[in-house]
Write a structure and sequence with these properties.
Structural class: alpha+beta
Largest sheet: 5 strands, mixed
Helix content: 40-55%
Number of helices: 9
Shape: elongated
Order of helices and strands: HHHHHHHEEHEHEE
Oligomer: single chain
Strand content: 15-25%
Radius of gyration: 21 Å
Distance between the termini: 76 Å
Amino acid sequence: MSIHDGHRDRLRQRFLNEGLENFNPHQVLELLLFYCIPRKDTNELACKLIQKFGSFSAVLEAPVSELKKVDGIGDSAAAFLSMLLEVERYYHAHHDKNAVFMCDAEAYCDYLSKMLTNKRNEEVYMMCLDSKYQMKSCREVGQGSTNYASVPIRRIVETALADNAVMVVLAHNHPSGLALPSPEDVHTTHRLAAALSTVDIKLIDHVIVADHDAVSLVQSAMFDPDNIQIYY
């Protein structure tokens, strides 16, 4: 009998008994790989993945094309690993959504940071709120940098109207930079606020997310929702 006999069952049972707190990163990855590689030693494969990408989190953030370059990682395993962060974001977007209140910048910065951290590309999100600051939706409304030409103003306005929003919070990420608002971010914020105001919807903030950090333009004194300035 091999020392590896029953290894999968023992690791699964350990998780059921203890959770993941005392697992090493490669053991968590090994456990995950059980579910997409049914008959293979995933311990060695987990170690190879962490060695190549540098950390557990970097493995989950890696593009499918790069994951498949690791010997032993096929289409199914690469898709499964790439899907995990998206599943986390989906969970946060839908968990008790009808009971989520965004009464201050700390609340929506925390929520939007979870939605946008580790995104590989620049994306624009919008959170729609009712008059009691209850979140009605939070969804992607655009991709690319937030210069005025690339932000889909019409789509944002139509989405806010469709969701019966009274107020909205805009957010976008800087995948490989700092969470520092640029002059163009400020410019776009004011133009979008003006567009929304024509349909009686108030833009209350614009949040920049980068590397688990989130910066509010309102808290940074770069945007006043009650004093919209139009730049040409």
